[in-house]
Amino acid sequence: MELSKLQGVTEALDKFEIWEARKVETSDPDVVEPQARKDSVPGRHTIIVESVALSHQITSQGFERDDVRIGTGRIQIKTGDNEEDSPVTINLAEGKDTLLDLKRAINNSDAAVEAYIAKTHGDTPYRLLLTSNVNGEKGRINIDVNLNGGEVSGPSYQNTFDKTSTWKGLETKVIKAAAGAGFGGSTNIVEVGGTYNGEDDNVFTFRVVRSGIIPSEAGVLIGWKDKNGREGEIEINKFNYVPGSPIDVTDGLKLLISDGEVIDGDTFTVDVSAEKSDMLWWLSAADRAPQISQPSDWSSKASEGGVRVTGTYDGTEDDTVVFRIEGNGQVGGPSTLKLHYEYSETGEKGSVNIGHPYLGDVGKNDGPFDKATAFDSEDGEELFDLEFSKKGRRDPKRLPIGHGLFVEVNPSVLRDGDTTDVDVIAPTSEDMWWSDEEHRGVSDKVDIKAKWQSYEEYEGLDENKKRSALDVSDGIRGFSGGLSNAPIEISGNYEPDIAKSYTFRVEKRGTVGITRSLQVGWEDTFGGSGSIEVGEGYIPGTPIIFDEGLKLALGKGDLYKDDSFTISTETSTVRLAQDLVLRIGATRSGEGLEVRRSENVANDVIPGLNLEFFTPSEGPVTVSVLGDTEVAKERIHDFVDAYNTFQATAKEVSKFNKATNTAAPLLSDRNLAQLVNEIATTTIGTVSGLPQSTNMLFSLGLKIDDRGQMSIDEKKLNDKIVETFSDVANLFRSHGSTDNPGISFLGMTEKTRVSPSGYRVDITNVPKRGFYLGTPLPGIVRIDDSNNVLIVKYNGRVSDPIELRKDSYTPASLAKSIQNRLLEDKVLGRRGIQVREEEGRLKIVSSTYGENSSIEVEAGPDKDLNSLGLAEGVSTPGENVAGTIGNVEATGRGQLLVGAADSNSEDLRLFVTLDEKDLADGAEATVKISKGVAVKLGDKLDKLNDPLDGNVKRATDDITGQMSSFDEQIKRLNKRAESKRTRLQNKFAKLDSTMGRLKSQQSYISQQLSAMNGAKKNQ
Questions:
Q1: This prediction's pTM
Q2: How many CB atoms lie within 10 A of CB 699?
Q3: What is the pLDDT of residues 118-128, one digit of tens each?
Q4: Among 85, 402, 793, 881, whose CB has the most other CB atoms within 10 angstroms?
């Protein structure tokens, strides 16, 4: 019993599952699914999947119907970029020139393309979708459509792009009119832009926290707060801000503010609306987009404002001076702003500039001006010239308007047409009794303030009449320059399969073809970027390539910093023609070995692993191959326990107990002693074919003491398993390897002898598959009721009748059709049979190898396959592999090569996958084998436990014979004892009877003697 247990655990140590079973783990199963093969090796591998293989798919423009006539002519289709391959030509004739006809023609052609009419949406839902039958980049579809005379144009697969675009500057959603300016308030023009990305509608209030000039060293501080209580502050000085540029606030909002003065406490507000849900489908995209209102006016400007007229009036008549604004913008700001004035009675008129440098500081080198000139507004004649002192003796803010009067325009934001007036009274003496009493004796000194009104308000026009509105961006744009106006033109040939959008942005202000280092930068949807030089030396209108075959040309005009425009491209590609691209051993920083495949399965990238990929990875994916070492360790412990149990049992049944002076039953049994010795010798012996350092159990930490018990050095065993698990495995199991991947070791038996130098393998005939080759076919094969059914026999299995679609075929398309029908067959569909066109003939190839591999073809009932070239074709059976192992002719069965009987390599099994081109003049490979401890001990135990002629059987028979002999002897002795006992019993009975008689006689004699003695006494 113990010997059988030892045999069981020993044989388990030679099982593949113990040493070669692998656990494979992946850090991202959504990217890759690994499976371990028998030749997998424990280890860790990192992979970056840059792309997965896709078959190319393109779509045409839409059509109203699928039976619309697209015209007659020629379509040429080619897959891949091999210049030696000719395109497949498809002709559409009149009467067969619809979209459906083209689909059928493509599917029946030799083009490796599948056509499908997809119904999408809209008024033109039908699109001709083409899918390559070849995966990866080599399956890219190239199509040339040349059709004429249809109801509509033929299918187009050309990429398109925007030819031109429109410049965009600072975008605002809602424009509010600015109210009249106040006196003494903040003078800066402000705007809020950007794209609001907050979740709710909101109102932002901006307040000046610290007064000052923009720009200045001291700077200013502007705080903001929204209706939810959030708040913040923005510090602006000349070191961190250029007037007119955007400042980030919050939620995507940007504040733009011109130069000027801000006053502590002044405020303005901005209303914003959040982006609306797509569920509000009845709103346009513009209405659903986030909205930003223009800022309200500064709070201090809401109630006051206008002009101040001072001086000593020297006119002789009362008069009214009317003031009117020309232009939009800030008083003293960068925009052109003029003040027109006119005396109503005398008709005298003129205009003065109240834009820059009006309101500038006096007394500094960069003061606003040293003089001002007044001109007549009609004929342009110079009216008067005034010199201003930089020392400030005369206030440059007081502009002369004649008749001893001056006008001072308060800091404000004004719009075109704003108007006001002042009445001036000529002085009269007390003697002029006919004049109004209130005017007699009045001083000629004038100091009058007047508020601005809009032109319509001043003239009393209807309220619904269009009013001029001030866009405060004019003030800011006046500073930065305005909206770019150079004409845009895009040309070229957009080449990629991926649609992109390009955004172009001006990097600095300038004039096309004139300004030095004037550039327009661009960035695409995927982060690609570049810049185009359009400054000095550039000839306006010249196209310049910027990306992917596209060109940009700019006409004459001005460009302003941060202005932009966008163009978009469209492609016919639905799915890219791309390869599986991997980088093995890659890290996040890159590197790694690049591997490309046209399929999403890679079985030759990592030794011993089959990998299937599903999607690109965001970073490195780790694939870990783990040997199941715990099971192996457990089996080694089982072996040691079984060995020790056997040894203890053998000792127990063969010992002599001195204390009791008794002997065990097998004390003197020589068979047991021999068996114990053979098992111990085989266990501790060397394993031929392995390195000396690893060819004994001792190298793993397993040793036998002087009592015959085996022990384990756990640390040494664990270290060996971790460091060189294969060495541990080879010490126990049978192992073989070859130096040619086309010849694999499968196994051996106890009859196979180990050769230290290995066995040379010479293949003389590679394995072949059976096939059926038809006769030559014409260019077009017609399938009809007479030849549309055939039957295929595969290795004796018979398919169901295979029915072909009635149509006209080329040999290649006919092969493809038969292949598809075979795949659908219930009997042969999964047998891997291949159908292909070869030199104008149909060839049907078996999936198995060897002499039993065959393909035969029969016609269906009442059918004739002559027109298919299958009636008189030739069926060629497969061939077995042939060759020698160790210079001895081996036996071939399909792809299996087995060592010859009675040779050293007997029962050595090899699997051959070589082709004819792989054969060499000499040996193709050398195979080296070894038989580990478990194999040798297993063979020994198998012989010992052989139920017919094993040592145990013989020993058992000997003991059984001896026991039978002893039983016979006991029987004979018992029989002799029984016979003797019977005789003695008979003698005893006779003796007992005699004794009884004697006792009776004694009693009688005693009585007689007593009687005789009594008679004597009486006498």
A1: 0.47
A2: 18
A3: 888 888 999 99
A4: 881
